Amino acid sequence: MQTHDTIAGFRKALDGERAAGRTVGLVPTMGYLHKGHASLMTAAATDCDVVAATIFVNPLQFGPGEDLDAYPRDLDRDRAIAESVGVGHLFTPTVGEMYPDGQPIATIVAVAKVGDDLEGASRPTHFVGVATVVAKLFNIAGPCRAYFGEKDWQQLLIVRQMVRDLDIPVEVVGCPIVRDADGLAMSSRNVRLDPASRAAATVLHRALRAGQAAPDPEPVMAALIDDEPLAELDYAAAIGDRLLVAARFGPTRLIDNMARTAHPSPTLLPGAD
Ligand code: AMP
Hints:
The protein is an alpha/beta fold. It contains 10 helices and 9 strands. It has helices at 7-19, 35-47, 75-84, 95-98, 119-122, 126-141, 153-166, 195-200, 203-213, 217-226; strands at residues 2-4, 24-29, 50-55, 87-91, 144-149, 170-175, 232-239, 242-249, 252-259. The longest helix is centred in the middle third of the chain and has 16 residues, at 126-141. The chain is globular. The mean pLDDT is 96. Bound molecules: adenosine monophosphate.
């Protein structure tokens, strides 16, 4: 695995792969890798000749008072995980490399409508930060397939919309949510939950399951989360064929979602029921 910390170096490496006739699979992340990230890298390795992953905790997508400084980081561990799942190129830029003129930057990417409600309402500057950094990463990486998790459902819709609207030569691939055995969706932020909150956080998964069984899912999901003393409900929504929830557990805000109709093959890890 080659590690790159400059834009020029990463771009040149991927241009070289394509020049040699190899297809590129791109997996953008904020690091502190877990099995959800690894599943995207494995999918990319299955579909593409070479996998490029990026690790960048993007300040632009964190609002004031959010957990930018507390966001977990462990680059040595991430390198080992990335290499073990077949990543060929790892891009680990500094903030100064990505935003040499500082932030906010003059040019931003804003995707209307799909980003307006839910996460967009709770975190007003979040999706502009996401779309802008993903546009930069796509421009740096060049033509490729890019793998995103359904865990961040709205983010996936936004990235797809941006690629369509701006004719970016990237094929966006959505991948299923990977969960712990008790149903909690894997997230880098889970490590920040104390044991009581970790146990309480399974309420998100339980609420989504209950929502799938209910004709009117929103009040059912909201009531379940409200009943959990350690959870502070942000939203419980049914939009189209998707159920989406968000709640705070102490300082840690978690999101999850599920198809409105249960599918027979949940993406739980072995040992789960
Ligand atoms: P993050 O590092 O949290 O920004 O996530 C990087 C990518 O991994 C995004 O496309 C996420 O949607 C995806 N991802 C995060 N958690 C999971 C999960 N539990 N299952 C599948 N994909 C995930």
